[in-house]
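Late entry, written up from scratch paper. The run itself happened at the end of the previous shift, but nothing got recorded in the book at the time, so transcribing now.
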Amino acid sequence: MSDMDSYDVVVIGGGIIGSFTALKLIKSGRKTLLIDQFPIPHSNGSSKGHSRGVEQITGFPETETFKQMKDDSLNSWHRLQQHTKKTIVIPHKGLHIGSPNENYMTNVLKSAKKYPDYYERMFKSNSELRQQFPQINIADYYVGLLDDTAVRLLADEILKYLLAMFVDYGGIVHTGTVSHITTGDIVTISTQNNQFTSKKIVIATGPWSNCILKDLGLEVYLETQHVMLGYWKIKQSELTLGKDFSFPSVMEWSDRDDTVLWSNFTTEHGPCMKIAHVGEKNVDPNKFSSLEDKDLKFKIEAHAKAKFNHLEELPLFMENCIYSHSQDRKFIIGHHPKCSNIILGVGMSGKGFGLSPAISDVICDLICDRSPKYDISEFRVNRFSKGDLCKM
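Output as recorded:
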């Protein structure tokens, strides 16, 4: 095996977590290989798509560590924009709506109160919501919170930028499916036609993580879930200023579907609203792109028609996405319990893109034998231990 096949670190998975991590590692002087089963950047996995909305306020319970990582990541996105020559991070607004008595809005209001003056500045009564957002059909008992610190990330442009920077710094990219990992002081990674050795590896394989975790002897199951996205053109009568038209992301809890229904203003297909809804669980990540869920499509169309009155009647088109969730909907970040030179960064549970700056910092700290800035005990894989977690 030639010296070119040996690395300080091999990162497996070229989505947002793997790409951010690989760039930081190569910038730290470590010879780094980035492996993905598809030519990157690509439109597979949970990092696909043109845009992502990232809000500082959340409707889910959050620990102090999660809040710190979320706040640091938002600051990192602003810094990244300052260092690039193209627009990849756009100031935006996120609107949370719902009954003040439901858990989701209770968490939203608690989250807002953690920031000075946010609650007073952002809270919207029912009448204020109706006056400020006449395009949204607001239930009589709803209140809202407008997060004006949110941003819209141009996700595909960010991935292209990270990959280009990684290569510019001397990073190597390999396309191939990992078929086996042989653990030891030096790790051997086998793909269809190649073998690589590395002192340390990072697992950032998103929805394809279950097979690799099993290969590494870890009895941890990640749930893969189909997400359908619909794009609706905004009525011409609403586009009074053309490109200057803006509209917040809208997040609303659905008791019936036990999930958040969210929409995001986007411009990759002209001024549109992108509306998402989660669907079938435990889908095959190799087949999700061709899924045709008529019931899910009907749900999205019904929600768009009932909630918004500034959209065209029919969607421009629909597309599929896929997420991977841990059992408790928290990340899995940390060392492999029996192989300290294997670092896990999986199970992002729909939060990975927005928090990828902080998550990749943690992974790099672990690779470089530094203590992370954050207390990551709640994210370690051994929290799922029932008897012997690792069968190696």
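Confidence is low (pLDDT under 50) at residues 240-244.
(Scratch paper discarded after transcription.)
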